[in-house]
Each structure stands twice: as structure tokens, then as C-alpha cells.
Amino acid sequence: MKNMALDELALVRPVSFPHPDATARASAAEDLLARARVHGTLDEAIADCGLIVGVTARPRQQFWTVLEPRAAAIRILHESAGAPAAILFGPERIGLTNDELERCQWLLRIPANPAYDSLNLAMAVQIVCYELHAARGNALPDIVREVPLATAQEMQRLYQHLEEVMMEVDFHDRTQSGVHLMSRLRRLLNRAEPDQNEVNILRGLLTAVQGKRRKAGHT
């Protein structure tokens, strides 16, 4: 990260931190480690971020926009001019879970030899950091959105509010498994990349639905 002029590192539930092995391997980047923020949950780590991008090796094109590092880097820099952007990496062994990926608007996938496309975490991080560094010379003009993207925390509140209203109006998943509806709605809204005003409109609509039900005598 320091090689590529990136210095905001957030760690979620690290097994052991600080750790002497990490400090030794940092090799003159100890200051970056010292400033790292440690969080108990992913939601806490990304609460103030607008754009969330998940790095994964598993193909999930059917649900998300999937970009290669070079194209993603330019767009990430563009969006970060208006609000913090987060790039998520999962643990070495299992990567990001489906639940964690549901926080993301896009996925970033590093193309490699299909017969052997596994990269270790350090390699993946370095490739993405390099592309971000290189993109600074080719970035889109800094056009700050008139209204910033909704933060991860605001999106989470929207999802909770939506789920609450769905339960109140008895709108349930009608598929055979009956467990995917909320996940699909999350992905739909993430693809839309709503700004803060748009999220407020949606929550206002949900509140109005609740108000009508209460006036009609529903609980």
C-alpha cells in the first residue's frame, strides 16, 4: 500500500493485531500499520463509505457488475472524489462471503490463467493498489456528485426499514427455498447506486406506507 501511495487501512476482526511478524514484514511502512483502524464488524468499517467494491476470484456475473482492476481503478478514484470508497478483501483461505458481498455495488475480479487463477491475498492487494496508483494519471475529471452516494450505514438502515415494512404487509419470498428475496433486493438497490436524497425518498415512502396501515387499524 505504501509503495502505491495508499495509507488508509481498516482491519476487521484480525486474529492478532498488532503483531511482531506484521511489523517486521512492513519494512519501513510501520507508520501505516500504526494508523490502521481495527473494527469488530464489516458494517462498522464501511459505515461512512459510499462506493463499496469487493475483490473476489469467484465468478458472480449474474448478480453484480464485475470489473477488471484497470477499469475499476479509474471509476473508484472518480467516485472517491465525493465520498470515501472502500475496497474489500476477504481472508486468504475463503475470501469474501456472500453476505459480505451484498454490501458491494460492484465486484473486482483479477483475470488470470483459467487453469490456475488462484492468487494469494498479498498478490491481489498489490495488483489492485498498483492499478489505483497508475490510474491517478488517467483518472476521469473530478466531478463531485451534487448529492453524495448513500453511505453503507444509510443503505443498511434502508434495508432494515424495507424488511420491516415487508413483514408488516405480509410480503414474503414465494420461491421454493424462501430465503433469497432480501438478498436479491439488496443487490438490486446496490446496482442502482442511490444517492443520499434517493435513499431518503425511499425511506419516506416506506414510512408513509406504515402510516397508512396504522390509520387503517393495522399493527
Into how many domains do the coordinates divide? Answer: 2
Question: What is the end-to-end distance?
Answer: 52 Å
Gross morphology is: elongated
Helical content (DSSP H or I, runs of 4+): 40-55%
Oligomer: single chain
The unreliable regions are none
What does this structure look like?
The chain has helices spanning 20-26, 30-35, 42-45, 69-80, 98-101, 121-135, 152-168, 181-192, 196-215; strands at residues 10-12, 37-39, 51-55, 65-67, 85-88, 106-108. The protein is of the alpha/beta class and 219 residues long. The chain folds into 2 domains: 10-135, SPOUT methyltransferase, trefoil knot domain (Alpha/beta knot), CATH 3.40.1280; 152-215, Helicase, Ruva Protein, domain 3. It is elongated and about 65 Å long. The N and C termini lie far apart (52 Å). The mean pLDDT is 88.
What keyword list fits this structure?
Alpha/beta knot, single chain, 219 residues, alpha/beta, Helicase, Ruva Protein, domain 3, two-stranded parallel ribbon, 2 domains, four-stranded parallel beta sheet, 6 strands
Q: Short summary of the structure?
A:
The protein is α/β, with parallel strands linked by helices and 219 residues long.
Write the layout of secondary structure elements.
Layout: E1 10-12, H1 20-26, H2 30-35, E2 37-39, H3 42-45, E3 51-55, E4 65-67, H4 69-80, E5 85-88, H5 98-101, E6 106-108, H6 121-135, H7 152-168, H8 181-192, H9 196-215
Parallel strand pairs: 1-2, 3-5, 3-6, 4-6
